[in-house]
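Need Mono-and diacylglycerol lipase's 3D structure for a figure. Predict it.
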Amino acid sequence: MRFSILTALSAIAAVGHALPSNLQARDVPNDELSHFKFWVEYAAASYCYDNYASKPGHKLTCSAHNCPQVEKSDTSIVYDFSNTTLTDTAGYIALDKTNKAIVLAFRGSYSVRNWIADASFFYTDPKLCDGCSAELGFWSSWTNVRDPISKVLNETVSKNPDYELVVVGHSLGAGVATLAAADLRVKGHPSTKLYAYASPRVANPALAKYISAQPNNYRFTHIDDPVPKLPLIAMGYVHVSPEYYITAPNNATVSTSEVQVLQGDINWEGNTGTGAPSLTAFSAHHWYFNEADGCIGAGLPFK
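Structure prediction for Mono-and diacylglycerol lipase:
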């Protein structure tokens, strides 16, 4: 079944006051904030063509000048993937010698507006836990590239056992990253860290609870960004907890008091409580500590 933005508006209006808010929010410390600002640069770099369509050994750069800390680090592409599947899953695996990290980054979609207006949100069984269901498109985007990525990750981790494994993504790439991190944790990489910026909902309550119980989940939303509001709660989808809710305006330096940590798979104190998804709120979707999708090119326009 297809759900237009008008369906989204009516469905959210129907459930908007049916579910309770959750626990009291807390601010984040300075050291955490610096990590949040750093890892989003790897998500931003995934939009740059030279990074997701490069050759091994390529140093990460951002033509939009939105990953300065990554550019200063000793980085190199280990593996890239794009234009090889029906889902057009794109991204890269990078080795960061400066920060001792192996980074798996998923590029966000170039047609998010169309996704909001026209996407069909079907469930599939990811076989991660009893009663768990994942959104079919995001799970397929991961499984279509899982085997070659897992092979490279296993080899890279074996060569660099003291490096941490970090999975990042922005927008629809964050949805894929969330499911990939959950899967990798049960396939030999239990300490995998997830930094998901502007992720849509990807799970039913059982799967969301399962992923939330895993360690090292950092899921970010920003004021009234429409993307984290879909798929709909009314359709049975909820979020991974906790939510790191950024209340700072666009194009502003974010302070510790402007990132609230909210618990629960549904929390009306954060992004969910800012109303129905609106196509006029996309400025909030672009800005996650910096312009996260600044490298979107003319070849694949943001529609």
